[in-house]
Amino acid sequence: MSIKDTLAAAKEAHDKDKEQKLREKYMQMAIKEAQKAAAIREVPIGCVIVREGKVIAKGYNRRNTDKSVLKHAEIDAIRDACKKVKDWRLEDCTLYVTLEPCPMCAGAIVQARIPTVVIGSMNPKAGCAGSVINLLDMAGFNHQCEVIRGVLGEETSSLLTNFFKDLRVEKAAQKEAEKADAAAEENEESKE
Amino acid sequence: MSIKDTLAAAKEAHDKDKEQKLREKYMQMAIKEAQKAAAIREVPIGCVIVREGKVIAKGYNRRNTDKSVLKHAEIDAIRDACKKVKDWRLEDCTLYVTLEPCPMCAGAIVQARIPTVVIGSMNPKAGCAGSVINLLDMAGFNHQCEVIRGVLGEETSSLLTNFFKDLRVEKAAQKEAEKADAAAEENEESKE
If we measure between CA atoms, which residue out of B160, B40, B51 comes closest to residue B115? Predict the structure, then answer.
């Protein structure tokens, strides 16, 4: 390898590393959003939208709290981004989301013509960026996105597994408490 | 055919006719919504959501006016319906829409678990209820809708063709006017 080639390879590796670090930085911000969802007992999914190096919109899942199917992290962020950009087209934005989008969110991304979508972990049961189907890259639509998967994959995935584990533990404890209450009541009645 | 069979067949035909008339009544209301879009120079698409025989939400396309990708007729109606029902699930609702839904709207319908969708005309280029793809009835998702197509098909279709025809005529007239202005200006300059 010539010195020139070595330098070019080193530069390429450096640029890739820088790009990856930037992606991880924004995914970390999406994780922070997801944690806001967990704090209100919602499935922890978070999203940020970046334009020209700036976060212009954020969102986290509030579906149960707000009793609206539209309160997914991505939809909330897309709504705010449109407001900021003053356009229904988000053609120079990148969307970061902790979990692979559902059909509604994937559809909204395509409709808003977002060019690049960065995903934390995949959702094999309902994901529409390659799991059940890939709506983000369908030849039949008039827009296709570049999709980058697995950015902070472990962190984004453990967010969800920890949430559901905590939920199970909580439910089991609640059941135990109810059982104890019923037994105490029965004991009380037998004394009367 | 026995008298009993004849009566049963007559009843069935009567019920079917009644059901179709009801569908047309609600589709007519969706057309009225679409006309509101046309009145503000938006592509005329309208939607109503019916629950227990009552229209609980309406919507029409305002995407350019409101500069938001989320301002499709169906999304607006679904938002209002969730507010009315106080639930993200719209499990006992029927959605009527003048044009086959896009991927975002079809996804929202699936996410809200709407059981029945009634469509006016199809959208071969971008429709997601059978044209490009059928997101409303995909085995991979955890909800599938019953889809009824072609209700007031001609009326809903001519809404769109008339809108685009008017737009073309308008644009041509504008071009002609600009040409005439330019010619008059040139004439004025040559006199100076």
Answer: B51
